[in-house]
Design brief:
- There is one protein chain.
- By secondary structure, this protein is an alpha+beta fold.
- It has one domain: Deoxyribonuclease I, Chain A (4-Layer Sandwich), CATH 3.60.10.10.
- Helix content is 17%, strand content 30%.
- The strands form 2 sheets. Strands 3-4-2-1-11-10 form a 6-stranded mixed sheet, with helices on one face.
- Helix 2 packs across helix 3 and helix 4 packs parallel to helix 5.
- The longest helix is centred in the middle third of the chain and has 14 residues.
- One of its GO terms (molecular function) is catalytic activity.
């Protein structure tokens, strides 16, 4: 996790622009066969990666809160570039939070990251259950005098059994939260048993179903999601035509309730308190 001290008088905007985007470590993929012909880019540096990251930065720059999956935190394959920091700086996001779930030394640093226009009050890293380790959740809290907004960033497992246990864990984490956003590459569709379970346990909802984001060159699967509690009034939902990864970015605009429109309460240290669950 990395961030700068909280801004004095920072507030949540009344209208919050959200994005969830799996960027595939900055690798541009436009055809299935490139998974094989250009698969080396997942383990070795590539001269096209930084120019593509700049295009991604331009795409995300119009949003307030961006949840990114499949970043690299600085290893051989990324040219030792911390991609969360690079995108935050290039897109002028003042606050960034990162969770590295599979640190493989110099070879790969598999991470997720949250970029924000406003500072968090607290950040919690959670290791998600699963037979194969390496999946995590980043829980970021924005506290105002009247209420809290909790944002959870996820990249779930490939197996349904693991996803069910991971979402059961998340449901327990946010069970008492009135205002919550869950976003990420969930690797399951809108009507899957996993999401039906999460909706029943938490009250989260997906305002528009079946918005395909994968693969980016011919979207057929809706595995990227932004889920919100009923207290957040959804204004727009859209998939952007930005084929800079093997996923397309999913976006949403929500109007926040009055209780969330006060100043964000900073931590005692002036930085968000980090804990690990």
């Amino acid at each position: 996790m990395s961030d700068r001290p909280a801004d004095a008088g920072a507030r949540l905007p009344a209208r919050l622009r959200l994005m969830s985007y799996n960027i595939q470590a900055g690798i541009e993929t436009r055809y299935y066969h490139q998974y094989f012909t250009r698969g080396w880019r997942h383990v070795l540096p590539d001269s096209g990666r930084v120019p593509n990251l700049r295009r991604i930065a331009e795409t995300i720059s119009q949003f307030d809160l961006v949840g990114l999956q499949e970043l690299d935190a600085g290893s051989l394959r990324s040219g030792f570039v911390d991609q969360t920091a690079f995108l935050a700086e290039t897109a002028a996001f003042p606050h960034r939070y990162i969770q590295t779930n599979r640190p493989l030394g110099r070879f790969a640093q598999h991470s997720n990251g949250l970029l924000c226009r406003m500072p968090a009050t607290a950040v919690t890293e959670h290791r998600l259950p699963g037979r194969i380790p390496g999946r995590g959740a980043l829980l970021v809290r924005f506290s105002t005098p009247a209420a809290d907004l909790v944002v959870v960033l996820l990249h779930l497992a490939l197996s349904q059994r693991a996803r069910l246990s991971q979402l059961a864990y998340i449901a327990e984490c946010i069970a008492d939260e009135e205002h919550a956003i869950v976003m990420g590459d969930l690797n399951c569709h809108s009507t899957s048993p996993e999401l039906r379970y999460l909706f029943a346990e938490t009250g989260l909802r997906e305002p528009v179903n079946d918005m395909p984001t994968y693969p980016s060159w011919r979207p057929a699967r809706n595995i990227d999601h932004i889920l919100v509690t009923p207290s957040l009034a959804v204004e727009t939902v859209a998939v952007l035509d930005a084929p800079l990864s093997d996923h397309l970015p999913l976006t949403m605009t929500v109007n926040l309730p009055t209780a969330l429109r006060g100043p964000i309460r900073a931590s005692d240290q002036g930085r968000p308190a980090l804990s690990r669950g």
